[in-house]
Amino acid sequence: MIAVRKPLTEKMIAQVEGGIGWITFNNPARHNAVSMSMWEGLEQIVQDYMADDAVRVIVLRGAGEKAFVSGADISEFEEKRSSTEGVRLYNEATDRASEGLKNAGKPTIAMINGYCIGGGVSIATSCDMRIAGENAKFGVPAAKLGLGYAANGIKKLIDVVGPSFAKEIFYTARQFNAQEALAMGLVNRVVPNAQLESYVREYAGTIAQNAPLTIGAVKTIIGELLKAESERDMKLCADVVAKCFASQDYIEGRTAFMEKRTPQFKGR
After folding, report:
1. Number of domains into which the chain is organized
2. Are 71 and 94 contained in the same domain?
3. Pair type for strands 189-191 and 129-133
4. In the predicted model, is pLDDT for residue 243 greater than 90?
């Protein structure tokens, strides 16, 4: 176990509880709009959680009742995104954070309450799963702002909802409610607002009790299978499977099954 570093900004909160590494976007006055320092803080926290064996699952949430993440903090645009160099630096920071989250070797869940707009959708689609409250609203308003949307961000959305729904989301630039998002496959589950946190805690806790090497192997293999066939690392896929069979956890799983008890997996 390592000590999680203090986040780079107070607008990002990191807490580890019962195998769950919580990441909270803490900017409720702006509906948790993400600033440059928050993107950098997200990157740092994910790195720390990846290095901490006590963290089995990573859950992202927004502070307050009104938003998960309502997009980028537009108040910074004049300073941070008004020049070619500024746009480049900002995009690099967001790309590092999003890719770090997407490629994290541990399960990631976006717990979505309220607005999930623009950059919020990008963060949510960087996660493995998305669980939403009934009040959740989703949208990508790029077409209302006249800004370009990078191919990697569009690809993430296509991978989740498919090309036709991705086009609908971008073309209309409108907000979709939780049931519409569920129908598109943008979210995995929709639950009553009052039950959202308890549901996610129980859901993440179930995952945290399972074998980390197995889960990590599945995540790796799915990631490879989503690539073009010529780009897939099938040796890596075989290696992570072999690592599971050679692990102490595999012995523990078999033994616990025979002894009719809950296995205690260590990730080794």
Report:
1. 2
2. yes
3. parallel
4. yes
